[in-house]
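Structure (tokenized):
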């Protein structure tokens, strides 16, 4: 489609405006992480790495980071197994209620987080506490897995529907059993979608705070919870800026990689 010069200029200006709205607040956070001032201020009063050293030495930040990593890895592992199995069932088999199951798998990510949190908290209190299992890291992982499954499910289902079952049928016709077909045919075709789904699921779990608040209990605190609890405490704003800046940089790579993998899947599995 050919656009006039005026249309190209207008689209360029709109794109620049959108990018400014999206990324200028992030830039402010990163710049303020080097601000020697103890409060949020703009423009910065100088340049200092003092708060970076204090953030690294902060035991609360390190403990919360480890907790978030454990919760994210646990929820992602569960999501990879259950999300992939559900995707295979819906994509490769015909049975009564298939579309209903597909809807039910996707529904948790559409629900407000507070609704999911209340439901999970009530369920854990009713069915787990009588057995002496209280709220903690285990319940956080289960809570995060409820919506991480959706991300993996959508990625794997889209890939399975795109490639169809022709190659798998041909593998069976040539004498391969079910496990050989999965190893040599199916798995290579969905590998990138699994990685992309895992990256997005981990990012979603790491960022979650509402569901975590209802399922973590008093002794578990993830990094988003730590940031929220310390946001308005004296002398903590600079450290929060540093933590936020680190997260921006750390999560840029997984998001970029997930996008590349998704683009590669659409182009036939090559990046």
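Design, position by position:
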């Amino acid at each position: 489609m050919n656009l006039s010069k005026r249309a190209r200029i207008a689209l360029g200006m709109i794109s620049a405006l959108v990018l400014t709205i999206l990324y200028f607040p992030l830039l402010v956070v990163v710049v303020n992480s080097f601000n020697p001032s103890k409060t949020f201020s703009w423009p910065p009063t100088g340049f200092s790495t003092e708060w970076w050293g204090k953030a690294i030495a902060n035991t609360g930040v390190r403990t919360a980071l480890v907790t978030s990593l454990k919760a994210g890895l646990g929820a992602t592992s569960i999501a990879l197994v259950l999300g992939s199995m559900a995707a295979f069932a819906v994509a490769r088999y015909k049975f009564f209620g298939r579309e209903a199951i597909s809807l039910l798998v996707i529904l948790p990510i559409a629900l407000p987080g507070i609704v999911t949190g209340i439901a999970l908290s009530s369920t854990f209190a009713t069915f787990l506490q009588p057995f002496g299992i209280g709220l903690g890291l285990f319940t956080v992982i289960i809570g995060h897995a409820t919506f991480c499954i959706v991300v993996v499910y959508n990625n794997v289902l889209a890939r399975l529907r795109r490639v169809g079952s022709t190659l798998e049928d041909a593998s069976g016709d040539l004498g391969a059993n079910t496990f050989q077909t999965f190893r040599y045919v199916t798995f290579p075709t969905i590998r990138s979608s699994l990685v992309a789904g895992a990256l997005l699921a981990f990012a979603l779990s790491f960022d979650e705070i509402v569901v975590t608040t209802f399922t973590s209990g008093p002794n578990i605190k993830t990094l988003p919870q730590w940031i929220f609890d310390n946001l308005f405490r004296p002398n903590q704003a600079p450290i929060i800026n540093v933590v936020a800046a680190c997260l921006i940089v750390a999560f840029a790579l997984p998001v970029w990689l997930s996008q590349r993998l998704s683009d590669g899947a659409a182009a036939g599995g090559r990046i």
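Reviewer-requested clarification: The chain has one domain: 61-266. Residues 266-271 have pLDDT under 50 and may be disordered.
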